[in-house]
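Collaboration report, partner site 2.

Our partner group contributed sequences for two proteins of shared interest, and the home lab folded both. The records are reproduced in the order in which they were received, starting with the first partner submission.
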Amino acid sequence: MKNELKKTLKPIQLWGIIVGMVISGMYCGWNYALEFTSPVGFIIAILIVTVFYTTFMFSYAELSTAIPHAGGPSAYASKALGKFGGFVAGFSCLVEFLFATPAIALSIGAYINFLIPSVPIVLAALIAYGVFVLINCLGIETAAKVELIVTIVAIGGLLLFIGAGAPHIEMNNILGGEVFKGGLGGIFSAIPFAIWFYLAVEGGAMSAEECENPKKDIPKGFILGIVTLVILALGTFFVTAGISNASDLSAMASPLPTALEGIYGAGLLSNAMSFIGLFGLVASLHGIIIGYSRQGFAMSRAGYLPKFLSKVNSKGAPVYSIVIMSLIGMIFVLTGQTAVIIVISCFGAVALYIISMISLFILRNKEPNLNRPFKVSYPIVPSIALVIALVFLVALTISNISTVSWVVGAYALAIIYYFVYSKMQGANTEELKEDFNEEIDVETI
């Protein structure tokens, strides 16, 4: 096979990539939910989202061990739903990741601006983005080592924050005030920001081809990753909400250091928290670049995108996919609209989740003898994930009508591109299936 990725990842590195992709969601972004609902309403949203991600990741582990492919969801959907289904899943993944990255980069800019007010947020975001694009071009082994280090530091930062803030929690900040603010609609509006706590956790599947032993390593990395994230998400929310006024918290660009500043005053602790917070944001920026570059690589290799995107350099890095996809992400950094970008990213994520769970059900019936080294409790667990994902879609649509038109327009353009490009390439479903099956068989052997 040409254009192969190198197999170097161990379970601890996969765990680092998975947690790193997501951990920025603990440091910022989620707090915008308190503009729409109360802390109690947000707790409900968080619990619903946590149940979803737990059931989803166990189900996703079955798919990713049965089909350890760099395309992740596009590979699963292609095998279950055919070429068009694979394209829609892959495009949804790109929407999720390419919009998540600018939001994270802007948050990095906000944290740098907190430390050095003279540095503009957008400029800092673009510089940080560019630095980690270059690191990713050095290959997965280097990228994974960097990701593991910054992820561990970021986890340490959250534990420091929880330890410093927990003694000062005032339950009235959580349970007092307008408890039913926004009602059910407010909880629906808060769901995208609760999703932000876990968004991109499924990106570890795009590193499946680079695992030394994907059949064993993926379940270990996935399960340990989601357990780590659930603990950190709940701890971060309760401490931040418990030491801050909800209305003030909803407007904070860098909520954790700002919350500590409210207790201890401006100084060493809040500045240290802001500095460590950069590691969390960097971990996600770096990890998601790994994710969307592999998705672009896999979609190119499968015939969905131009072939040059599947070329790798001497380090085994899909350098063209890394650079081109990142330039697209940088364009959205220039908008400066973090909250809107988060919502658009969530639309892509939810579409991906629905397609992936439908693919699991179809493959269970269509290919019952498919080698599944890890099996989820079927059909209960994937059914819960699918139902909640559909609720997410309704919640996102109802609470973000003004953004829906942009999302629908993007998918319409993507579908037009798909049919035009497919016709130009003369690709057909059987060729694509053979391409996927050849890669999957190589992994199985």
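Second partner submission, folded after the first:
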Amino acid sequence: MPHLLIVDDDASICETLSDIAADEGFTCAVAGTLRDACLQIGWQQPHAVLVDLTLPDGSGMELFNEVGAAGTQVVVMTGDATVDTAVKALRHGATDYLVKPLSAYQVRALLRRAAQQCSAAPERAPAAVTAAAAASAAAAAGAGGLVGTSPAMLQVYEQINKVAPTEATVLLIGESGTGKELAAQTIHRLSARARHNFIAVNCGAISPHLIESEMFGHERGSFTGAERQHKGYFERADGGTLFLDEITEMPLELQVKLLRVLESGGFMRVGTNRELRSDVRVLAATNRNPEEAVAEGKLRADLYHRLNVFPIELPPLRERGDDVQAIAQMLLDLLNSEHGTQRRFAPEVLESMRLHTWPGNVRELRNFVQRAYIMSDDDIIRETQVPVAMEVVHSAPGTVVSVPVGMSLADADRELIFATLEQCAGVKKHAAEILGISLKTLYNRLEEYAARGEYPPRGRSTAAENAGDAGEPPAPA
């Protein structure tokens, strides 16, 4: 049985982590100081260690020197994540880096991974561990409040960490609700401008008649109702960062003036000819394809090229795999902390969340978690208590399958089955529900196709993943 050492001077955190570890099959030891931790290691060498960065008698980093076994995994926990501490933890040999408040889902996933590695061969691949730890540190320290460890998000974290310390203009591209403003805030926090203002402006939420005044300010008496001098966003963000959300909604005539500010740093308040200057880093965002917006005349081409110095695409939630469950658990943990509860999702709810397409992305997921929390009658949030909006999980529209005239019914049937499997990420149980056939019938069809050398797009890669579908063996692949 794997053994876990928890080192933290917060008794409530130790108790919570101990309960989670026990559920995952670990024996546990707890220490509140470095001294106690060293004694615990002397008594029993742990397979994994969760250590807080700040302890009463020193830094948790010092514990790396006391962990003798090469296979011991050390995970650093902190409530004050920074890039520097993440890098130091990696250099000391940390295999992961968690930010408080801890997500129970992330801790469970980490412990399961540790248990698997304990039961496997004792040798570990240092390069792979370093890469995983670097990705985790980037997610925790480099991306602030962003959550997730999917490949798509790890790429975002890497881009943010690289561009944040520079003065480059960044264009954030992504669907509504993917976290563009959160990414902009993270870039600001990791930049040299972090101590100055971060001002976010939704260009589509301001009246076209007032947006110039709001952006650049106005002088007293410059128009009816201008009873006093007003400083615009550029002046108020001096020394800091100005985030222009939905940039394609900005009137074209103002886009010309914005381009001039970006090029020269100078602008004029409405009602004066005196030029002012402001030291501002501009970050912009759009939920549209910017090139299509240029083609449609919604965005000036010269402004687009000026903003597109460093583009970052925020992936939609449907492309982030298990991040959906991690984010949902984090949101639920926050609600539990706020209200003093211990509610958790039933397994079937977590599975439904993973299968849902989430057209509203993280914003939709946040609303769902809040509704599910409110409607739950006890500590377990079950599928029967989930709001009706979640039912689209079982009936989400699929991709269009074109069937040319002359195709046989058998071939059309095969194409429909393959397309449905692709939409369901290879999960055969869900595909069978959508197709209206039994799981056994679906397996029989797939066996026939495999015998002829015909495989669905995910056929080879998902056979092992779906071995647990309804207790049936996976189809040949």
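Feedback sent to the partner group on the second submission included the following. The radius of gyration is 27 Å. The chain has four domains: 3-142, 157-313, 318-394, 409-471.
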